[in-house]
Amino acid sequence: MFRIIKKSKKSKARLGVIKTAHGEIQTPFFMPDATRGVVKAVSSQDLRQIGVAEAVINTYHLYLQPGLKLITKTGGAHSFMNWNKPLLSDSGGYQVYSLIHKNHRLGKITDDKVIFHSPLDGAKHELTPERSIQIQFALGTDMIVCLDDCPPHDVSSAAMAKSVERTVLWAKRCKLEYEKQNKKYKRRPLLFAVIQGGTDLALRKICADALMDIGFDGYGFGARPVDGEGKFIGEILAGTAEMIPGNAVRFGLGIGLPEDIVRCVTMGWDIFDCVIPTREGRHGRLFLWKRNSKFQITNNKQISNHKFQIPKNFYDTININNAKFAKDFKPINAVSKLPELREYSRAYLRHLFKIGEPLGQRLASLNNLEFYLNLMEKIRQNIKLGKI
């Protein structure tokens, strides 16, 4: 289901194809977050128009609202969203643990399951590895993720070791339930396990080796790609990528800054997802290519060094809310394939944000998604040409 087409001679980057029931996906690729079954402010038709080929949905959020009963009544997440392209569902674990780590009164984590109270109505829920897999099969997604224990990086060494132990235990249970659901639904979505261990490479190695003994289609980087101070943990990401077999998909969960995606591609990571392009768009921040940018990376040795910070030499960001755009009648994006972005002015977009008009959020989100699609296409082309 995953085939490597080309490997770079300058870095760990590679080109590949993932085959799913809803189409093939060229790797490396980026998935916009349709967390609650929608990419905020953007329709499925909008996504198709700019060429989005895949998206990620959130098991936890869709389980709570609108609930499985309603979604399965329509035939699954694809039908419910009017989306006929590949979907990946995460396990819901990150959201549950974030909830509990922020407020221990909202739930607890045991070796058997996670018990939590819904932030919507306070109702008590239990999430087990088996239940997470069952929900994802019911959603009908093409790629699914094992439930894992995802603590913040700053927990104690003992707590992180316990998290690794629990992640492996749950992965075994997920794999067993996955095989049961295969027989029930007669289909085999790709199954990803998640490597935990925080910023301790030795713990990540223990976790990775144990997960590979179980066997999965791909492996993800667990927890945030930055430390407590917001610094990119490149050495940990690169080291973790090297632990994953070359024939498996490498999933960089939550990695979304353009320069971080480039770094991680050179480390060998294949797929990415993040809320950054649409979240930033809804706040008026636009990603734009620098004029005459050829996206040429000239110092591969530096890029391969995890500690090197890639300069933002290929894109700019602007905040359309700034006063300087009030009389800026240049197009929002003169090179966009979307007529709206070529024909509406920046002054008009700023006006939309100032009056709270949702059209402004839609246009800015579409601009950013198109930028990310172009970024991934340029990355793939650079790998093909042997430049990365």
UniProtKB/TrEMBL annotation:
Coiled coil: none annotated. InterPro entries: TGT, TGT-like_sf, tRNA_ribo_trans-like. It holds the Pfam family TGT. One of its GO terms (biological process) is tRNA modification. Residues 11-387 form the tRNA-guanine(15) transglycosylase-like domain. Gene3D superfamilies: Queuine tRNA-ribosyltransferase-like. GO terms for molecular function: metal ion binding; tRNA-guanosine(34) queuine transglycosylase activity. Keywords: Glycosyltransferase, Metal-binding, Transferase, tRNA processing. This is tRNA guanosine(34) transglycosylase Tgt. The lineage of its organism: Bacteria, Candidatus Falkowiibacteriota. The gene is tgt.
